[in-house]
Amino acid sequence: MGLEACVGGIGLVAPGMADWAAAQPLLRGEQLWQPTPLAAPKPDLLPANERRRTTTLIRLALAAAEQACSQAGVAPEGLASVFASAEGDTEIVERLCTALNMAGKPVSPTQFHNSVHNAPAGYWAIAAGARLPSTSITAGVASFAAGLLDALCYLQAEQAPVLLIAYDVALPDSLSAHGDVQQPFACALLLSPSGEGPRLLLDGITTGEPSAVRADLDALRRANPAAQALPLLHGLANGKAERLALRYVDQQLLNVVLR
Amino acid sequence: MPIEALRLSHYTVTNALGHGLAASWSALREGRSGLRPNDYPPACGDAALTTWLGRVEGLEAVSLPETLQDYDCRNNRLALLGLQQDGFVAAVAELRERLGARHIGLFLGTSTSGIEQTEQAFARRDEQGRLPADYRYRQTQSPFSLADFCRRYLGLEGPVQVISTACSSSAKVFASAERHIAAGLCDAAVVGGVDSLCQSTLYGFNSLELVSSQPCRPWDATRDGINIGEGAGFALLQRAGAVPAGPRLLGYGESSDAWHMSTPHPEGDGAVAAMAQALARAGLEPGAIDYVNLHGTSTPSNDRAEDRAMVRVFGSSTPCSSTKGWTGHTLGAAGITEIVFAALALEHGWIPPSLNTQAIEPGLQAGVVLAGRSQPLRRVMSNSFGFGGSNCSVILGVDDGA
Q1: Does CATH number 3.40.47.10 belong to domain A4-24+31-198?
Q2: Judged by CB atoms within 8 Å, which residues 142-161 of A form the interface with B?
Q3: Nearest by CB to B256, which of A132, A142, A180?
Q4: Residues A232, A244 contacting (CB under 8 angstroms)
């Protein structure tokens, strides 16, 4: 029994790619990618009072999630979700560890509850009124592929749609020399058992090199674990039947067929 | 839909009660708490926060294998110490020989991973504010560090993920592992969780006024917050037909509160949804559950919301208790710790009381047990609820006819 899904909606927020509509000609090679700094993402679903408490990472994830839902015309409250982020909110890690080394330990209560890896999922649930199961995972550089696997497993078990969101922000100054995320990137896929849109089939796990993308985009792929989705996003933008390989753990690859 | 027939063929816990199952079980039976006054001060030399802790003895002396030294941090030391109890490593190795490394998944929960390393690195910044050269972000701070380390130590090559949904993390690993096995991505899985002491959670919970200055006392009228604990726990999930014994995973339920980041829904809506879904998946009526290990953190609002949820699902007669008075709140390890405690209760036919609880707050109506008691148990539930409104309930049971 193969794992498969229909891709009903896509969201993308990245430097030089404000949304999925803007990204498609670029992914198809009609335009070159320019690493234009990302404008502050502004998710609409979150009430202003909640949005004020959030961080760049949370807003980035929610903006991609919203795009995928609105593109598919699907109400977000009826969706289960998988949030995949390699590093979580490193901006908060920096602030927490700074505060812990100051007199009086001025840790902000809001920052502390935002520090949990599932903070974007928590805000999404509040914003969307989504009460269904939601998970927040990491698998390092394999986070996108691990998230895709997790979402496909949920979909198969429950025969219900699931929203996959993969996202990371660039590491803050203090940590940037020690880790691997240099650019912000978020993408979201609304996966359903059936419906309009391309079908995605899992075609085994092998070893080797992930599918190549153009050199300019390959730099982005290497600059953010969520951008390991780029070969898949490239295939979805091209709209052709294709077999592609996504970076999984160690030298493993997740092979995916688009139809 | 019904789940794959799985059982916990092996399991182990390490926490403030000691290393391995026997230490936890004897402390539970003897009513001996592992909590102690906070003796884990911050690196900057300030006095330790006034609270009680569930601290694991001996972590400072644990050393990682030579080839995995880069992963050295309190959390991975605790992971290693936990894996080395109760023959767990040997059981995984035997299964790996039989099934192949690619066929065993690894699903672990943690909330703070190795953040203690980053806290201490910040204390050692140079004049330019740079972190010391020996700081290893990828292998310690990174939230995947725990599974990355355990995967290498155990020699596993199957599907892998860290679930980090705060205090429900290591309960949700059972759900994710079951779905991966059902989908055919692996034939068995190591599940579990590890969380270790750090200043971030101590001062973070303190900033939210959720830390008690005394030993925590769930459901008590005078309860005023949590004690932070640390712990590691692991279980080997195998297809029920492949192994002769061990508790069955009968069901799980997951839900989101969609309410508030750090406070549960006051009527316990999300908790009710998780418990109801777990019961439905197991094909059980609430009356079929013989004991519930509560999340029971001992904050006023958490226990009140869980009490409301318990009464809505079970009424007041189902025996339940929180074991946080023994271990403290082990956060990302709370799920696995308490699922294993529920498995021990099932195996031995004994319900642990809610330690430290003297007088239950008037108005709370769940069937909280104040004195341990022996009785045959066939099906038990464990609740885990976390920040962000992430809820998970897991049901274990004996084989039908057993």
Answers
A1: yes
A2: 142-143, 146, 149-150, 152-154, 156-159
A3: A132
A4: yes
Residues of B in contact with A134 (CB under 8 A): 165, 254, 256, 390
* Predicted pLDDT of residue B3: 80
Of B161, B166, B184, the CB nearest to A150: B161
Among B144, B173, B205, the strongest candidate for a mutation testing the A interface, having the largest count of A CBs within 10 A, is B144
**Domain ranges in chain A?**
4-24+31-198
Size of interface A-B (CB pairs under 8 A): 217
User: Is ipTM beyond 0.95?
Assistant: yes
How far B64 CA lies from chain A's nearest CA (Å)? 21
pLDDT tens, position by position, B356-380: 999 999 999 999 999 999 999 999 9
Structure tokens at B201: 């959670």
Looking at the DSSP assignment, which residues form a beta bridge with residue B220? B360
- For the ranges A30-39, B94-103, B196-205, B262-271, which has the lowest average pLDDT? A30-39
Q: What is the average pLDDT score of chain A?
A: 96
Helix (H) or strand (E) holding B280: helix B269-282
- So what's the pLDDT on residue B312? 98
How do the domains of chain B map onto residue ranges?
6-397
Contact assignment for B206 to A107 by CB distance below 8 Å: yes
In this structure, are strands B228-229 and B379-386 parallel, antiparallel, or unpaired? unpaired
How far away is chain A from the Cα of B26, in angstroms, using its nearest Cα?
34
A18-A19-A24 Cα angle (round to 5)? 110
Q: Which of residues 279-338 of B touch A (CB under 8 A)?
A: none
* Set B19, B186, B329, B392: catalytic member: B329
Q: Mind telling me how many Å the CA of B303 is from chain A's nearest CA?
A: 19
The pLDDT assigned to A1 comes to: 52
CB neighbour list of residue A64: distance below 8 Å, 6 or more residues apart: A11, A12, A13, A165, A167, A186, A187, A188
Matching CATH number, B6-397, of 3.40.47.10, 2.20.25.90, 3.30.930.10, 3.30.870.10: 3.40.47.10
In angstroms, the separation between the Cα of residue B83 and the nearest Cα of chain A is: 20
Task: Over range B139-148, report the average pLDDT.
Answer: 98
pLDDT digits (tens, 9 = 90+) for A27-85: 999 999 998 999 888 889 998 888 889 999 999 999 999 999 999 999 999 999 999 99
